[in-house]
Structure formats: C-alpha cells, structure tokens
C-alpha cells in the first residue's frame, strides 16, 4: 500500500482574484506550503471553498506519492500561525 503526501498551507484570495480564473487570465494557484515547498495546483481543486469573500483559511491537500491530486480540505477557517 502506498502512502499519501499531506501538504498544509494558508490561502487568502479575494473573490476578485479568484474571478480571474473564470475570465481565463489564471488557471493555477501558487502557494508556499508550511514545509517551505512552493506548490502550484489547478484552481478548480479549491473552487468549492469560494465564497463572496473569496477563499481564506488553512488547508490540507492530499496527493499520491506520484503527486496526483486526491483531495483538499479546510482545516481551519481562520489563519494558521506557525
């Protein structure tokens, strides 16, 4: 059985910033993970968290060892402090 990677990060995007995805100007989200890695992923992977205020919170993304997307969940709606 293979193990999965869990990557945690804080994200703060305004509604207008995320709107660029719908306008075709942006397709990916780039964030700095807690472990220092820069991760880039399709914006559609986090679209379900979009509200009128944008997307804000502390998230955990699950990937296979081969870096294939499994899922994402919000851990805390407030910002995480290290």
Key structural traits:
10% helix; globular; 82 residues; single chain; OB fold (Dihydrolipoamide Acetyltransferase, E2P); 1 helix; mainly beta; two-stranded antiparallel ribbon; three-stranded antiparallel beta sheet
Tell me about this structure.
The protein is mainly beta. The protein has a single domain, classed as OB fold (Dihydrolipoamide Acetyltransferase, E2P). It has one helix and five strands, in the order βαββββ. The strands form two sheets. The chain has a three-stranded antiparallel beta sheet with strand order 1-4-5. Strand 4 and strand 5 (69-76) form a beta hairpin. The radius of gyration is 13 Å and the shape is globular.
Give a brief description.
The chain has 82 residues and is mainly beta.
CATH topology: OB fold (Dihydrolipoamide Acetyltransferase, E2P)
Query: At the first level of CATH, what is the class?
Result: Mainly Beta
Q: What does the radius of gyration come to?
A: 13 Å
The number of distinct helices, counting runs of at least 4 residues, comes to: 1
The CATH architecture is Beta Barrel
What coarse outline follows from CA principal-axis ratios? globular
Give the number of domains.
1
- Residue share in helix: under 10%
Low-confidence stretches: none
What's the total count of β strands?
5
Please give the order of strands in the largest beta sheet. Answer: 1-4-5
Overall mean pLDDT score?
Answer: 87
How would a crystallographer describe the biggest sheet?
3 strands, antiparallel
Beta-strand content bin: 35-45%
Distance between the termini: 32 Å
State the assembly state of the protein chains: single chain
Order of helices and strands: EHEEEE
């Amino acid at each position: 059985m293979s193990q999965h990677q869990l990557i945690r990060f804080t994200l703060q995007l305004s509604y207008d910033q995320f709107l660029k995805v719908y306008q075709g100007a942006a397709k990916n989200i780039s964030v700095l993970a807690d472990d220092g890695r820069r991760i880039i992923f399709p914006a559609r992977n986090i679209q379900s968290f979009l509200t009128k205020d944008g997307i804000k919170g502390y998230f955990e993304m699950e990937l296979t060892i081969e870096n294939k997307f499994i899922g994402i969940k919000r851990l805390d709606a407030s910002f995480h402090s290290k």
